[in-house]
Specification:
about 0% strand, 2 helices, mainly alpha, single chain
């Protein structure tokens, strides 16, 4: 079975815009039960996004995993 791959780039001007876009996209893909890959430039960015997805949205969290990291 083949799956269409779509790559989308977003331009954001501020850190708040970036944070909002990440949360919105992750939420949309989670609700559609579709996979989402977020590529990040370095470990510090990875740690930030990991924490962001566990803390937001505030009324819940977005389950996710870091590639090649064992789950607990």
């Amino acid at each position: 079975m083949s799956r269409d791959v779509r790559v989308t780039f977003y331009q954001v001007k501020t850190g708040e815009e970036r944070k909002g876009r990440i949360i919105t996209l992750a939420t949309e893909y989670f609700e559609k039960k579709e996979p989402l890959l977020i590529r990040l430039p370095h470990e510090k960015a990875l740690e930030y996004v990991d924490l962001l997805l566990w803390r937001f949205p505030q009324e819940s969290f977005l389950p996710h995993a870091i590639k090649d990291t064992p789950t607990k």
